[in-house]
Structures are given as C-alpha cells and as structure tokens.
Amino acid sequence: MSSPEKGPVARFVSAAWAVLFACIMLWAAVWIIRQIIWWLVALAVVAVLIWVAALLLRWRRDRWLR
C-alpha cells in the first residue's frame, strides 16, 4: 500500500519543524561553546607557552654546543 501524497500545508509544517530543530541544535552548540570558550583559550595559551619555551631551550642548547 502506498502512502497518500502530502499536501503543501503538511510539507510546510514538516519544513518548519525541521528548521526549528536546526535552530535549537545551533543554539545549543553556541551555548556549549560559550560555556567552555575561556577554557579553550587558556589551553591554547598554555600550549603556545610550552612551544615557545621548548624553542628557547632548544636554541640555547644549540648555541651552548657550538
């Protein structure tokens, strides 16, 4: 048995529900990112500081060995 065709109103309602769901998911993603953004920034700063310290130590060691 085939299902009956959806009318234009039913298609519009389905599309509206899909758009609402997408908006809610986007809002939730932005909310989660806003909650952890400072932790991510702090983690990036720590990673850059460790990288710079490693570069400085390597540069000093190479200069000492010459």
Fold and architecture overview:
By secondary structure, the chain is an all-alpha fold. It has one helix spanning 8-65. The model has no long low-confidence stretch (mean pLDDT 91).
Task: Provide a concise account of the structure shown.
Helix content is 88%, strand content 0%. It is mainly α and 66 residues long.
| Assembly annotation | single chain
Query: Could you tell me how far the N terminus lies from the C terminus, measured between alpha carbons in angstroms?
Result: 85 Å
Helix content: over 70%
Enumerate how many helices there are, as a single number: 1
- Overall morphology: rod-shaped
Key features of this structure:
single chain; 66 residues; mainly alpha; 1 helix; rod-shaped
Topology:
Blueprint: H1 8-65
